[in-house]
Amino acid sequence: MKKLYSFSLLLCVTFGFAQIPSGYYNTATGTGYTLKTQLYNIIKGHTNNGYAGLYTTYLTSDVDNFYENDGTILDMYSENPSGTDPYNYTTGTTQRCGSYSVEGDCYNREHIIPQSVFNEASPMVADAHFITPTDGKVNGIRSNYPHGTVNSATYTSQNGSKLGSSSVSGYSGTVFEPVNAFKGDIARMYFYFATRYENTVAGYSFPMFDGSSNKVFTTAFLNVLLAWHSQDPVSAREIARNNAIYARQNNRNPFIDHPEYVNQIWGGTAPSGDTQAPTAPTSLASTTKTATSITLSWTASTDNVAVTGYDVYANSVLKTTVTGTTATITGLTASTAYSIYVKAKDAAGNTSASSSTIAVTTNSSGTSGTATDLLFSEYIEGSGNNKALEIANNTGSSVSLSAYTIKKQTNGAGSWSTGLALSGTLATGSKFVIVNSSISSSCFSTSSANISTTATELTFNGNDAVGLFKNGTLIDIIGTFSGGTANFAIDVTLRRKSTVTSPSTTFNLNSQWDSFSSDTCNNLASKKAQPTAIEEEEIVSDSDNIIIYPNPSNGNFNIVLDNSAASYSVEILSITGLKVFEKSDLTDAVISVDHLSKGTYIIKITKESKTINKKIIIK
């Protein structure tokens, strides 16, 4: 029941306000409950858009641009973070339908802190920071029970959220437990509520509350929320939601902007007396970029206890918090330069110094094909020692190879090899070829290779992952690291699909590569060619009576010539300029394209001294 909805205009409006205002937290200088009161004074008095206004807010605050990325409503009670959602919602007929007999009927508004706690009073009843869109059936099942850890479930939703008996220390009632991916989100909503309504919360009766205006929570439930906050750090989804709500309400959830405030106010699980900050992250690099996103990697920090996460900043604004050493910043502006750095933090809230700052410019909105870095473009694992690797430079400028190394993991286990260092400069549009020095001459001449070697990196088999490293950081991979004995590519030639323009640390054979039979070597070291012109017709003809038909979806297409006896040559280029087919001395032709992936291609037809370029789209 996936129903799509256009959010483009609203998203443009939202991202115009997608920054923490300068000086917003300048007065948040204290610790403990003093800091909590300072935050209350910053975020109180927000704009009340009314209860009905929540559905308008959800158009930008709760859109799935992070999992399926399909523009549907992101519902924490039905979203499957690691697979296909059981059902999906958008605005319109699937909201407030009044019929919640089964999951998937329609969605409504879930108060994480139930309305009955504050007698449906304003502005609490319409505060989007703790009111989310959720499936109506699951919302009803949750009812007004507290959030906590379940001992024995009496109901489990289709995404794994549970209702059941409590395993929270000292509380024997019923609790509702969300899936792990959203526990931190919900904990930070509770911390927001305790801070935003510090002036009234002491008067609210709820099993999770202790009747105070400072601590707010009972010790048992506070420990649950602190654990959830620590185990599920701030995500890009929360940051985007916080920005969108700020654009509507003019206040922010400070525990998303500054997760360390939680431990500074309520303590948390940080070791007593831990004042040592982690070391700064190193080797920060951009591995992939688009017009609206930048993907990063870095080398892990160290700490005397443990590093719990990393804050990623662009132009001095916190963009996302992650637990690993890679991150993707989304919602950026095309053709814009960003200064990016990363900070590490530990459980005590200690924050490292900044990593080195790198400058990254997003692609233009119309950019197609320009790669963000070098990448593997061909892999040959053939008979005997017919083994070769090809690296392509489609970045638009020359690249020094001194920072790059190729490494291999043997038989899907153990560590990466020491590495085969590369050297020299690779011009844009060119290929760098490394072959096993015993490769058959019928496959490829070693004299045409950039490197001919018997190094272990060129003795790979079908289960040996091969990686391209830049400054010691993996940026591209063929195969799965620690993939075991399973062969991912044996007796095969792999060529990178023309649609892949950036390196990837995750290997996906079907979406990234075209496969060819063993010892297919004819494309190795081919140079990137530039078409001189592109015509926009999908079925094309010209004044010389050269006709191409039909526009292929698969199989073949035809080139019909004039009646002259002159021969001609045909090249097919990807939209990035990579040559994927070549044949010469033809007088008529039916060209097979069943080996090409979907996309746009340029046909370059040369007859005598004249060259004609045509465009085809394989659908």
From TrEMBL:
Signal found in the keyword field: yes
Keywords attached to this entry: Endonuclease, Hydrolase, Nuclease, Signal
Superkingdom in the source lineage: Bacteria
Coiled-coil portions: none
One Pfam assignment: LTD
Extent of the signal sequence: 1-18
Name by which UniProt lists this protein: Endonuclease I
Organism, as annotated: Flavobacterium chungangense
